[in-house]
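ok trying this again, last paste got cut off
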Amino acid sequence: MPAVVLPDLDSEPLERSLAVLQSLIDQHGHVIVVCSQAVSQQTERRLHTVRSLLESDRIALFRPELPPLGLAVLARQLRQLASCDLSPGVLASAGRLLTHYIHAGALLGSVTKLDRVPVGLKSHAKSWVPGSQFAVLAHPQPQLERIGPGATLAGPEFATSMLVARGQLQSDWVNDSLAKAWNVQGLRECPLPAESARWWGTGKLIEFCSFLPDLSVLYQLVTSVRQNICHWCGIDLIGDRCVFCSATAPAQPGPAASPASSASAAAPRYQKQLPAG
């Protein structure tokens, strides 16, 4: 399924933004907007304004805590799944589930301006040493390591492919050391996303992301989670919060756990099955 880029939302006339989103709804019925947290506040406000003025609960706004390359991978996975027999609510909910299986980070020449991953004073001080490089994992668990003998990052416990995007940093550590430590099954290079330098606080970087490349595995992941029906708008979904109308599932009485399986709870249970897949 093709993706539609919505550029200049923070500067174009409101009427144009309204017309573009309304046209997409008319063509496809539902729209899932995957938006980076690196975009400006004006862009975020414009998206909420358009959704409100259109009075539509067929627009899902999704802003996961992923760096730009990881976000691009997630958007591609959703495009792949859009060709399957999934309802709009399940497809939009799948975004939260799939983020658990994305490992995204970067090799940086400096962490002095990195504010999206916890950085200690010692690492800040070392970043001023000429030639210092740092391996940073932003998702799923933040981690920072100074590059040296044996340096590595905690990786996935299942087979993945890796995507690498090179900025203004020269190094083979990601391709030679990290990919080997993570036992990736395939590695491909791509252009660096436009927002990467701003997200990571430096243009001297090599961004990387490991992910599940097989559509059949992605489909099995999504369909293995119990689906629910939103009590407000009636759409099918995964988890306890509707991605279109934002309604949450009513609290279940009694001490028993809710039958609704949230995406975050389902991910670790299914993860153990992935190495055999």
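PB: full thing came through this time. Strands lie at 31-34, 59-62, 103-108, 134-139, 143-146, 161-166, 187-190, 205-211, 227-229, 236-238.
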